[in-house]
User: Fold Cis-2,3-dihydrobiphenyl-2,3-diol dehydrogenase from Nitrincola nitratireducens.
Amino acid sequence: MSALESKVAFVSGGADGIGLAVVERFIQEGARVAVLDINQEKLAALQVQHPERVCTVCGDVTSYEDNQKVVELAVQRFGRLDTFVGNAAIFDYFAPLSRIQSEQLASSFDRLFRVNVLGYMNGVKASLDALKASQGNIVLTVSNSGFYPGGGGILYVTSKHAVVGLIKQLAYELAPDIRVNGVSPGATDTEMKSVEGVSRKSQPLNHIDGFHEKAAQAVPLKRIAAPADHTSLYVLLASNEQSPMTTGCVIHSDGGWIAR
Assistant:
C-alpha cells in the first residue's frame, strides 16, 4: 500500500519546481491533489496529465478567497482534505538592504512577504476546518535561508526565518488535532522568480550565471538538488502513519549546510 493511499492534499505553487515535484510524488503515493498556482498554462498541462487525480485553481496565494476555493474544490471533488502543503514563494535576487532603493523597500517587502508568509497563512486558515475533521497535517516549504545567512538577500532570508516561526507557532496552536512541520530545501534547480523592482538584474534563480556550480560547491555533498530530491520528506511528513509524533519540526534537505 502506498504511503498516501486515499489521502487528499492541497499544494500551493504546485504547477512548477518543487511544488510540481511534490504533486507528482503524492500522486505516485496514492493521493489526489488540489493545486493553486498563478500559471494557467502549466495548470492546464497538469490537469491533462492527471485528469482523475488532480483539480486546479488558477489564483494568487495572497488571496484568502483563492485558497478557500481550492479547499472547497478539493472537498467537493475528492470528499476530504488531509494535507496542506504551502510551497509558493518568490526570491529577492540576493539583494542586500543597502542596495534596495528606499522608495522600493516598502513595496518590495510587502510583495515578497505577502507571497512567502501571508500566502502560507492563507492556505492554513482556509484548510483548518477540513484538516481538523480529518486529523490531518500541514507541511510548509522553508529554505536553508530560514536558518543561515547568505542564501538570499535581506527580504528572502528574513521571510524564510519567519516561516520557521510560523511552523513552531502553528504546531503549538493546532495540537493535538493537526501536525505542522516543514521541509528546508537547499539550492534547487528551479525557476523561482524574483520580486519585481528589488534588483535591476532580477531573473529566475536557475538562470543566474554560475548558479549551479556555485551552489554545488557551497555544500559538503557537492551537488545542486533536483526538485524531486526533496519529495520523500514531504511524503514522510504528510503521512500520519509514518510520522505520528512529529510536529513543530523542520527537516533539512540542503546538501549539508549544518556540517560546513
Q: What stands out?
A: The helical segments are 17-28, 40-49, 64-78, 102-134, 154-174, 211-217, 231-238.
